[in-house]
Amino acid sequence: DVFEHVKNYPEAISELSRVLKPRGVCLHTFASRYRFIESHVFVPLSSVIQSYWWIFFWVLLGIRNEWTDCRTIKERAIRYYNYLKEKTNYLPKRELLKDFSDYFVDVVFCEKEFLKFSRWGKYLSFLLKKMPSISSLYSSFRLRIIMTMKPNKINQQNFYPSV
Question: Is 147 strand, coil or helix?
Answer without folding.
Answer: strand
